[in-house]
Amino acid sequence: MAKLNFKKGDTVEILAGDDRGTKAEILEVLSKKNKVIVKGVKVVKKTVKPTEENPKGGFINKEMPVDISNVRKVEA
């Protein structure tokens, strides 16, 4: 497996997709899948079923993983 040059907290720029050009912080690195989760990028609305903690259910906004080939580390 190749070594990833990204760590949690690094600032990266998005190279492809709807959020191209966005600079943001890495929240999580998924090394086995070669993906990273970036703050505020690729946000989707997920439905949540009612539970005891959240009796109404509803929607949450969640960041989805981005492939590491679509991000570039930014030196600050």
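[next item in queue]
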Amino acid sequence: MTHLRQLMLEELRRRNYSAATIRAYISTVNHFSRHFHRSPDQPGLEALGRGKSDICKLGRIYVDFGLANPDAYRLAFMVEKPDPVHAIGGDPMLAAGLNAFNLLREAVGLTVGAGLPPQELELTAQSLWAALHGLVSLLLARPNFPWKKQSRLIEFHVARACAQAVSETSRGGTVKAKR
């Protein structure tokens, strides 16, 4: 048994999840590993280049994964009040979510990060992630809302969020929030 799997099992048991739910989460992680040919704690950008379209591809993968694996997504990204005793390093669900975010941050850095101060790069990555997460969260939480065709909505939202992230930071300066 891998270290990550052991941590995940311990966390799920600590949170009193049923055996069936634990099997479902472990199965989802196994599916993720087989699909990407790597452990979930070993993300990488080898398949992506350095353009806006690559950030959009990664954004689409993020949205598709969340919608295809709603239980795992909720556990990794939507647990409202994690146990304060567990720091980030001790919570494997949060660690998995941070790994996904780090992958997005790396893609943003490769695409628009040249010359950006670290705080601007972080702000850009967090803003893009918040946009993607908001869409997944709403689609999961409100499936009966009268959404436009879901595939078109996702395509439109991901393209807009990526274009905004790239255009704001590629104008040669820092992004300034309006007050």
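[queue empty]
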